Amino acid sequence: MDIFSDLVLGLSVAITPMNMLYLLIGAVVGMIVGVIPGFGPSAGLAILLPLTFGMDPVGAIMMLAAIYYGSMYGGTITSILLNTPGESATVASTFDGYPLAKKGRAGPALVMQAVASFVGGTVGVLMITVLAPMFSQVSRSFGPPEYFLLAMMGLMTLIVMIGSNWKLGVISALIGLALGTVGVDLETGQGRYTFGSAELIGGIYFIPIAIGLFGLGELFYAFYTGMHRAGEGTLVDYRKETRFWPTAHDFLSTRWTMVRGSILGFVVGVIPGAGATIASLMAYSAERSLSKTPENFGKGEMAGLVAPETANNAASSGAMVPLLTLGIPGSASTAVLLAAFMLWGLRPGPLFMEQNTELAWGLIASMYLGNIILLAINIFAIPLFVLIVKVPYRLLGPCIVVICALGTFTVNASFIEVWLMLAASIVGFFMRMYGFSPAALVLALVLGPLAEQALRQTMTISRGSFDIFFERTASLSIIALTIALLVLLPLMGRYGGRAKTSSKAKG
Amino acid sequence: MRIVFLLALLSGAIFYSYIAFFDLTFLTRTGRIGPGFFPRLVGGGMIVMTLWAIVDALRDRRAMAAGGAPGADDAPSGLWRDVIVLLLLVLGYGVLLRLFGGYISTVVYLGLALFIFNPQRHLQNTAVAIIFPSAVYLAFDRLLNANMPPALFNLPF
User: Fold this and answer.
1) Residue A221 needs a FRET pair 20 to 30 A away by CA distance; which of A64, A365, A366, A399 works?
2) Domain coordinates of chain A in residue numbers?
3) How close A48 gets to chain B, by Cα (Å)?
4) pLDDT digits (tens, 9 = 90+) for A270-293
C-alpha cells in the first residue's frame, strides 16, 4: 500500500467516537501535565499508563501519545505568563515569551505559541508519515548485533548530552542496567538478584521506578527548592489587554521561522538522546543568528518565541521515528511509551508498521487530529489552564503523591511495587539534587534487557567473537553514526546552550 | 552530602559485583555467555565510575575549603525540614494504604499533609481532603475499573 492509502486507513481507525474522546482526554491531560512545573511528560505517562489497561489498545496508545506531545503545548503557558517553564523543553520559550507578556502582548504570544506548536507538530507528523516507512525498510536487515549497537547508541548519546556531569550520567545508566538484570535469566533459568523473593522473579517492573524517579522524586526536589512556599508569582493578566489576537505582521514575519524551526526540531528529535530541549535551544540560537535584529531577542521578539515552540513540538514527533521503526526510545518519555507498547503485547521495530498497520497508521493519523485538537484547546481554553497555574503547589504537591501511589498500585495490585516506587523516589530526589540523570537510568532499565539479550544472541552467532560488529555493513554504519553523534552532539548542545547563557545575561 | 550518596552507591555497586562474580557464572556449560557476563561488566563499570566521581567530589570539597566556587553538581541549599516532613508523610501514607485501603488512608494523609503545608486554611484543606479522594475513587474504581488498595482492617462505617 502507498503512504496515502495507509494514512486513509489510519484515519478510518482513529476517527471513531471513543478514539476521539480518548484523544481529547489525552490532549487535555497532556496540557495539564505540561502546565504543572516539575511534573513532566515522563511522570504523567508513567502514572496514567496503568489507567489505560481496561481500554482498547488503539485508543490507549493514541491517548498516551497525545499526553506526550500535548505536554509540549502546555508547558509554554507558564513560560509566557509566569516566566516559569512547565517543563525543560519550554525553557527557551521564556526568553521572549515572558518579555512579550510584560509588554502587554500576552494574548498574541499565547496564540502564536499555539499556532507555532501546531505547525511544528504537524510538520513533524508529516515527516513521520514520509520517513517512518523508509526507516522501517532500511532497518529490516538489522539483526542482534545492530540492535545491541542501537541500544548502546541511545544510551551513549543521552549521556553525552548531559554535558559536564557525564560521569554521573554513566553511573545513572549503569544503575538502570543493573536493575534490568534482576529476575530469572531466561536462557539458563538461574535467578539473578532475586534473594528468594517471588516478587522479583519476573524482574524489577519499569513503571514504579519511572513514577518514583519522575513523579515523587521531582516532587521532593520541588519541596526542597521551596516551590510549595512560593505564592502565585507575578502571573501576567492577559485579559486586561485590548488586543488578544496576533496581527498579520506577527504571522508574516515568522512564517519562515516556523519552517526552519520545524525542520531543525524534527531532525534533532530523531537523534536518540538529543530531544526537545536541545532542539528548542538550538532553534532559538539559529533564529537569533539569522535575524536582522538580533538585539531584540530576549526583549520580546515574536520569532524568539515561535522558533523554540515549533522546534520542541517537531522534535517530539521526530522522537517517534526511532521508537516506531527501531523500537529504540531516545528519551525517558519515549521509553515510557515503549513500555506502554510492550504492555499491550506490541513490539515496535522494523516490522511493526507492516504487522500492525492499523495501529501504527491509526497512531500517526491521530497525531494530525491531536494537533488540531490541541490548537483549539490552546486558544480557547486558556482560562482553564491559567486556573490550574493558580493552584498553589502546597495544595498540588500532596495530591500528586496520592496519584503516584495509587497509580503504581493499579498496575499489578502490588503493595511491594508501591514501596519500590517510594524507594525510587528517594533515590530520584538525591539523583536530581546531585546532578545525576534519572532519564538515563530509566532508559537503561528499558534498554538493558534488550541490549543483554541482543549481545548474547550476537555472541552465539559469532561463537564469542566481537569481530562480528565490524564485519557487517549495517553494524559498521551504526558504529560510524554513533561516533559522529558523539562528536556532533556536544557541539550542538554548546550551540543551544549559548542561547541560555545570553538570555540569562540580558535577563 | 554528595559524598555520602556516592559512598552508598559504591557499597551497592560492590555488593552487586560480589554476587555477579561469585554467584553467577560467566559462561554456561556449553560455552555460551552466562548469566554473570553482563552483571560483571555493569558492576565493574559502576565501581570504577563511582570511585572516579568520589575522587572528583573530594577534589571539589578541597577546592571549596580553599575558597573556590562550588562544583557544577553541588546541590543548592534547600528546605531539608520540609522534605523530611513530606517523606515521613509519604511513608506513613504507604503504611496506611496497607491498613485502611485507598479511600480512608488518602483522606487521612491529605488532611494531615495539608494541615502542615497549607496551615490556617482549615475549610479549604477539609474540602480538598474529602473531595479529592472521592474524585480519585470515582475515577479509578468506578470509571476506569482500576485496582484500588484494599483495606486490611475494614472500618465499621
Assistant:
1) A64
2) 3-506
3) 11
4) 887 767 888 898 899 888 888 888
